[in-house]
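Help! Submission page says 'invalid entity' but I think these are all valid:
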Amino acid sequence: MKERMPNSSALMKQEFLKKWIKGLQIYSSFKKEMTIFERKKAIKLSADVAIASTRNASTHWSRALMSDVSTDDANHAAKIVVAQISGRKVEKYSSSKGLMMTCSNKILRRSRVASRCRRTRGVGTSVKARSIARKVVKNRTRVLKSLVPGGQEMDGVCLIKETLDYIASLRVQVDVMRHLAAAAERLDPPQRSIL
Amino acid sequence: MSGRRSRQSSGSCSSSRITDDQIIELVSKLHQLLPEIRNTTRRSNKASADKVLQETCNYIRNLHKEMDDLSARLSQLLSTVDTDSPEAAIIRTLI
């Protein structure tokens, strides 16, 4: 997985913005009049697709996200958005499960032996506390997996790496949207709907 | 690090591509990425791993929520999701 340089975040923001706007344009070409709810969905979905595509399918989470959007049969516009923005046909997300299972087995095996070793040393480390701690970490990991797209199929190192990348991308996404909202407020008289 | 002793574990190619050090390094990167937890001192690996995971989940949830709120706000502010190109051009320079 590529390491991201800090100064490329501005480039990422620009790329995200461009793609996001492109997605919105596709949406509006589908439907001229949208309800506020539909507009919100369009904005959100375009944003997700745009941010995922900035990773160029190099991360699991971005692939999973694109796949989720494009396999949602109810949403035709979404599929077009994905195809246009990513520039390629998005297949159903299937991770290289074999590779990742090997990943996780090694880590599990190592941690099991490590925990056995830990037990023999150290005064005052109760075995029970350790196993509780392990359970808690396991539960938290499960929650994390549910938050990161495609997380269910990752384990150990993969999950953490993907999380790092995902968080960084989310921050870009939120940052740009925040700027846009602030700018829109300044440029236009607020057009609040009565809805 | 207790991890050192566990090298014996994987009978298979101990490619150690995934070393405990790597895991710790990644966890600490996560640690740095999270604003709230930066000043917390690490007492033990296990405790901080749990805390880091918890803060990570909270952080991601917050980002999702903020995304949702911003989408709602934007859907009100932008009367159409059409080009708005003068706006878009201006915004591009603001970022």
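Support: the input was valid. A stray whitespace character was the problem, and the output above is from the cleaned input. The helical segments of chain B are 20-33, 45-77, 85-94.
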